[in-house]
Specification:
Number of strands: 16
Order of helices and strands: EHEEHHEEEHEEEEEHHEEEHHHEEHHHH
Shape: globular
Strand content: 15-25%
Helix content: 25-40%
Distance between the termini: 62 Å
Largest sheet: 7 strands, mixed
Structural class: alpha/beta
Radius of gyration: 22 Å
Length: 387
């Protein structure tokens, strides 16, 4: 018997496990990946002072978090397609949303847990209710375990969600193509200069180039295109050269320093189709099972997903500590609060997605959002916006 089974060793599930450990409550995290290093963990995350940082404080990991902050990473700039600077916001050092590498943040959480808390190579294939709030989990290797509380922290395509809801993620109409430039300051100096020290946004109706500077001279790019899924199906993603040519053709006439973020990509392009759950997704409480993070409230990316997952994990952990031994009361309290904040989060994510990718006025809607309607423009010294 496992009292608390957390499905998924992402940031949300690990935060829950850590907060429970801080309060002397044991839990087991079951993760399908064979090890912590089985796959890359993504790029930079901005961790917000009103949710993600509060979760790390509840986990007792604020000092460790500060040590991995990417100095200067809070800078943001918006360019037009010709490379002219429309908005340049330097990192002011406020620490309101400092940037950290996702993999490093996950490592901190993993290192904070007792040995054996995370069981690797445990892919859940079925979950069977037994009554009385208990469930039997069966894994791909044929092993099984019974838990008194199952927490689905297993992301967009959660295996736990069907126990609570029939909702499934739907395609939002936009996909990202992800690629990287390495050692960019030396090998791709023009592109590196345009990206600057933090995040770059170049938006036009139905398309965008988004990039972020990571440690060690890495530029991480997401090319966004609002196209039907069938459009992407027509591209052979096993042929990186063809992918880059097809995607770059959608940005004909844009500054070469910008399109080089696509054409000069040094990793195989990866397609990221963007999905979301219905806004305000909720369910009727079921004893012995709940969800957190993307499993509960998958939204289009807006910088909040990881923050919300960690905050969910921390809040559920605190509720379980406050109602020690009464899983039902703890989960009901957690869910009611989570449902309320999820409504606002879903609405805001949809609004930002529209401003960035479906607005005929792009990028000016995003500029107004970031500046309160009065965008300070840093004048460029050339037609390429070099400042």
């Amino acid at each position: 018997m496992t009292p608390i089974a957390i499905i998924g060793a992402g940031l949300g599930g690990l935060t829950l496990a850590r907060v429970l450990h801080v309060h002397g409550i044991s839990a087991t995290v079951y993760e399908a990946d064979a090890s912590a290093d089985a796959r890359t963990q993504g790029g930079m995350l901005d961790i917000h002072d009103y949710n993600g940082q509060l979760a790390l404080k509840a986990a007792g990991l604020s000092d460790e978090f500060r040590r991995i902050i990417h100095e200067g990473g809070e800078a943001s700039r918006i360019l037009d397609p010709h490379g002219a600077v429309l908005l340049d916001q330097p990192d002011d050092g406020s620490g309101i949303r400092p940037e950290v590498p996702r993999g490093e943040l996950r490592r901190i959480l993993l290192d904070s847990l007792p040995d054996g808390t995370v069981q690797w190579g445990r892919k859940v294939t079925s979950i069977r209710p037994l009554g009385g709030g208990q469930h039997t989990l069966t894994f791909a290797d044929g092993a099984s375990v019974t838990a008194s509380l199952v927490v689905g922290a297993d992301g967009a395509w959660s295996k736990v969600r069907p126990l609570l809801s029939d909702a499934k993620p739907g395609y939002v109409g936009t996909s990202f193509v992800e690629t990287y430039l390495l050692d960019a300051d030396a090998r791709h100096p023009a592109s590196a200069k345009l990206v600057g020290g933090g995040a770059l946004y170049v938006l036009a109706p139905g398309k965008a180039i988004l990039a972020h500077r990571e440690p060690h001279g890495v530029l991480h790019t997401y090319v966004a295109l609002s196209r039907p899924q069938e459009w992407f199906t027509g591209i052979d993603f096993s042929d990186p050269k063809d992918v880059k040519a097809r995607v770059a053709a959608e940005f004909d006439g844009w500054a070469p320093e910008l399109t080089a973020l696509i054409t000069d990509g040094e990793t195989a392009p990866v397609l990221r189709k963007i999905h979301a759950l219905p806004p305000g997704h909720r369910w009727t409480h079921v004893p012995g099972v709940t969800l957190l993070g993307d499993a509960a409230h998958l939204n289009p990316p807006d910088g909040e997903g990881a923050n919300l997952a960690m905050y969910d994990g921390a809040e559920l952990g605190k509720a379980l500590a406050a109602h020690r031994g009464d899983f039902d009361a703890a989960v009901a309290e957690y869910e009611e609060a989570m449902f309320l904040r999820s409504v606002d989060a879903s609405a805001e994510a949809a609004r930002i997605h529209t401003l960035c990718f479906n607005d005929d006025n792009a990028p000016h809607g995003l500029i107004n959002l970031l500046t309160g309607g009065a965008a300070p423009v840093r004048e460029s010294t050339s037609s390429r916006g070099q400042s």
